[in-house]
Amino acid sequence: MSEESRGAIEVVRPPGGRRFRFVLFDFDGTLSLLREGWADVMIPMMVEHLEALGAGLPAGRLRAMMAEDVALTTGMPTMYQMIRFAQRVAEFGGTPLDPKAYKAEYNRRLMGHIARRREALASGAAAPDTVLLAGARAMLEALAARPLVLLLASGTDEPYVRQEARLLDVARYFGPHVYGALDDYEASGKKQVIERVLAAARADGRELLVFGDGFVEITSAKGAGGYAVGVASDEASGGGRVHPWKRERLLRAGADAIVADFAQHGPLLELLFPA
Known about the structure:
Elements: E1 4-6, E2 9-11, E3 22-26, H1 39-52, H2 59-73, H3 78-91, H4 99-123, H5 136-144, E4 149-157, H6 158-167, E5 178-181, H7 190-201, E6 208-212, H8 215-223, E7 227-231, H9 244-253, E8 257-259, H10 265-272
Parallel strand pairs: 3-4, 3-6, 4-5, 6-7, 7-8
Antiparallel strand pairs: 1-2, 2-8
Helix pairs in contact: 1-2, 2-3, 3-4, 8-9
């Protein structure tokens, strides 16, 4: 597999003459830092429940197990993570709650975790760009100036996605194309969004460009024939360096290129949209 470096961009497979018409962004961790630390809310919640069952494994082992489960479903509607967790509860001899109950508990905990960030944005005490990955707005502005259809897709519940996209002042780049998880979670994943958009436009998958920091959007992009840029963001630092664990998983998913953030949006645009 060939690999070349363009500044901070790791290129595994160049676009090869593609002419993109559709650009899909994942939200959390790819553009938004508002939910940074979400896994540190979800995984401890799961470990707590399993420890209460007397699972018989050290907390570190349980945490590693739950972290792997969560990683494999990151990017999917949150319900999938809760369904997998309910299966784990049963495996450890417990009687699982309805996955919706676990999801409600997780959302309650997460909203508490990010409440101050949301309040600061809503009041104007924090500027939206301070809660975006480095270079994200410049990248969106540059893409919005081109004849492209921009789409935002997330595994987070759609009402939250729409609200947070407005708080971060990025909803305007995507118009009607803001998608999140719905009650019918099986029909609201990124794979389904991609399929519907391409089918409606009678477009070829080679016209699709996807940016994401999760396994699911990368595999969905590749499955449709699109070009996938893995955003291996170190969310805790706001970007600036590649997160090794994310990079490894994104490459395993089939990412065609890897970036830490969008600070190098100029060279990245030159790669994707050569003159």
